[in-house]
Design brief:
The complex is a heterodimer. Chain A is mainly β. Chain A is built from no helices and 11 strands. In chain A, a hairpin with a 2-residue loop joins β7 and β8. Chain A is globular and about 40 Å long. Chain A starts with a strand and ends with a strand. Chain B is mainly β. Helices cover 0% and strands 50% of the residues of chain B. In chain B, β3 and β4 (45-51) form a beta hairpin. The N and C termini of chain B lie far apart (39 Å). Classes of the chains: A mainly beta, B mainly beta. Chain A binds chain B through residues 4, 38-40, 42-45, 48, 56, 84-85, 87, 91, 93, 100-104, 106, 108-111, and chain B through 2-3, 5-6, 8, 32, 34, 36, 41-46, 49, 89, 91, 93, 96-99, 101-104.
Chain lengths: 117, 111
């Protein structure tokens, strides 16, 4: 299995531009998580889905952030408009069915490093 | 302007030594704790977990100790190897089992 796939791996954009991050979870996994990691705040859970339905988006910082999961094999995290303080590494993770969302079943992707100038 | 990032706590050890990484958690209601390892340029990887009804759990070369009285968690790595160099995170979970991550400790292993 290829693991969780994220694209792009690096993104540099200018303030005000729209940014779309993509994630392909591991086949058969029914939970999908989006995290943001910064030196200041560490690893933060933004939102997670179960069976393509958003369950908890309380970690989404503001209305500029939105996430979708149109099918079981694809999710996007969009920032519009982007700001310099959005610069971070964004991770996607997935976990298999039957788990109680315990962390040992979360498989992280390699992350997307976003820089907003 | 951009804010300056804070440096992570760092533990430097010699290859072959035992390493102990400590973590204090804040929520006395947390009942599940996890250690993750994150190598440079990669996502976090699960190492070991422990439930609040235990005070010790052992894995391969790793041991996690939990002291609920003082809300303290530690990760012990035996015979540390250069490949153990990474950032180590503790995470605590409550009823939802969605973990809250700490900020991490950087482990540097010198050959």
């Amino acid at each position: 299995d290829a693991g969780v796939i994220q694209s792009p791996r690096h993104e540099v954009t200018e303030m005000g531009q729209e940014v779309t991050l993509r994630c392909k979870p591991i086949s058969g996994h029914d939970y999908l998580f989006w995290y943001r990691q910064t030196m200041m705040r560490g690893l933060e859970l933004l939102i997670y889905f179960n069976n393509n339905v958003p369950i908890d988006d309380s970690g989404m910082p503001e209305d500029r952030f939105s996430a979708k999961m149109p099918n079981a094999s694809f999710s996007t995290l969009k920032i519009q408009p982007s700001e310099p303080r959005d610069s971070a590494v964004y991770f996607c993770a997935s976990s298999p069915p039957g788990s109680q969302r315990e962390a040992d079943t979360q498989y992280f992707g390699p992350g997307t490093r976003l820089t907003v100038l | 302007g951009e804010s300056v990032g804070l440096h992570l706590p760092t533990l430097s050890v010699q290859e072959g030594d035992n390493s102990i990484i400590n973590c204090a958690y804040s929520n006395s209601a947390s009942d599940y704790f996890i250690w993750y390892k994150q190598e440079s340029g990669k996502g976090p990887q699960f190492i070991i977990d422990i439930r609040s009804n235990m005070d010790k759990r052992q894995g391969q070369r790793v041991t996690v100790l939990l002291n609920k009285t003082v809300k303290h968690l530690s990760l012990q790595i035996a015979a540390t190897q250069p490949g153990d160099s990474a950032v180590y995170f503790c995470a605590e979970g409550g009823g939802s089992y969605i973990p809250t991550f700490g900020r991490g400790t950087s482990l540097i292993v010198h050959p």
